[in-house]
Amino acid sequence: MISPTRQFQSGSISRFLRDASSFVASSRAAIERSAPHIYISALPFAAQDGLVYQTFFPLCAGIISLTATYGIDRPGGQLSMTLTGHERVATSATYSPDGLTVASSSFDGTVRIWDIVTSNEAMAPLRSNDGIIYSVAFAPNGIQIASGAPSGIVYVWTLLNNETTLQRLPGHTSVVLSVAFSSDGSVLASASGDETVRLWSAETWDLRCVLRGHTDRVSAVVFSPDKSSCSIWVRRHEHPIMAHCNR
Which domains are delineated in the chain? Predict the structure, then answer.
């Protein structure tokens, strides 16, 4: 058994444990599929200056060696934070306007809010109980968070004074794949598998207009930075299309 004094003095044990924790968290999806992925997929992409890589890579034979990589846990030589909590694949993530929190969505049907200083969840997960969540977006005011659901409903959570309220925006007839707020926060756009984009008033949550024209699902939506119009870019596969809706 290693004494606490020796551990504190050397620092190597605590550093190894931090590296190991980051390694497992960042490679969790591959490792859960099969234990050999620890060596096949995870270890080759680990940070080469980390103790996990330096300890175990020389002991392994026949695995790939990458000559130029920053590592999945230290991109650009900087230690990145691993946010662990979703029970299934994470589908989307976005920073809050003040840059202090991150919202993420997942196949597990939750939106989670993370404190980027501590890497802990800042609050209980937001649940719509409506299946997979493909996209999440912060409003510019940092108070509202929008997401979509397989049922075609857009969900908007308002986080204010330690209370959470939920607004449901029905209308789409297929899964909501993407949501986005305009830069001034006055409009929320939602893109769907029903081949439409819907624009909602962020004040009343009434439907403002429906943009039609796609012949397949609309997989992404984003506003132009111009606050004077509701012009948005919607993208179907690799082909962007400009659509307009006058205020």
Answer: 4-77 (no CATH), 90-243 (2.130.10.10)
